[in-house]
Amino acid sequence: MIKIDRQNFAEELKEERVLREHIRKAINIVKKRKKTHKNSQILEEKKLRNFIRTLILEGTPPNADSPGPIHKSKGMNELETLLSNSQILDKLKTSYQSLTTSVESRNSFRAHLINAVENILNNIDLLRKVDEAIKVDVGEEIMGPEGLVDPNKSDEDKKQDDFSIPGMDLTGRDEAMEAFDNIESQIKKSYGKLHDPQDQKLFRDYIITNLKMWFDTWEEEMSNVPEPTTDEYEEEIKGEAEEL
């Protein structure tokens, strides 16, 4: 029978607890440093992304000495004013990042929103063509699509049908529909000012490009990036769990 020296055992136990405490403190310090480093990396990445967006949006490097729109195209000036001087991006980000339950909802939001923006621009272009046709052929009856619409449906149901993309998540659709209602008039106003075909094309192309990039950024902000670990840390966590 092995005789246990209680005093030595107690001292060893005390030393082990002290060692554990030191390890715990060291882990916390490492975690804080990693978090600080990670935050610094995120900040630098955001600065880089903003710079890249500026290059894409403007087509030229930003010039701090020349504030305000400086593009050669009125279409690009109008787009910059729309995205930088309004709350459009803040509203879209808040709505998009509220969809925390599933990525399917966020994908649906993104698809519906971009599709809605394209549709409203298409509708404005169509109305312009109709106006031109009326000017050329005065007195000719212009037939609308009313005959294709179910008269028994409410205006809200018709609006939802027009907005919907078949097969996509409905929660994301409804959130996108509400968000689009808040920004639709601003987009119409900006695009409605443009009558030159080249200005219209640049506005159309780059509003979609910028929206896609912002959605990418907002999704990355929501991603759970695995944190690096060590065997010692995992053993420490396991040991603490066993003590409970």
Give an overview in words.
By secondary structure, the chain is mainly alpha-helical. The chain folds into 2 domains: 1-67; 73-140 and 153-225, no CATH class. The protein is built from 8 helices and no strands. The longest helix has 53 residues, at 6-58. The two termini are 31 Å apart.
Describe the structure concisely for a colleague:
The chain is mainly alpha-helical. It contains 8 helices and no strands.
Number of helices: 8
Rg (CA only): 29 Å
Largest sheet: none
Structural class: mainly alpha
| Average of the residue pLDDT scores | 76
Percentage of residues in DSSP E strands: under 5%
Which sequence of SSEs, written as H and E, runs from N to C?
HHHHHHHH
Uncertain residue segments: 58-67, 139-149
Any chance you could write out the topology, listing elements then pairs?
Layout: H1 6-58, H2 74-84, H3 88-97, H4 103-136, H5 155-163, H6 170-192, H7 197-222, H8 231-243
Helix pairs in contact: 2-6, 2-7, 3-6, 3-7, 4-6, 4-7
Essential attributes:
about 240 residues; mainly alpha; 2 domains; 8 helices; about 75% helix; elongated
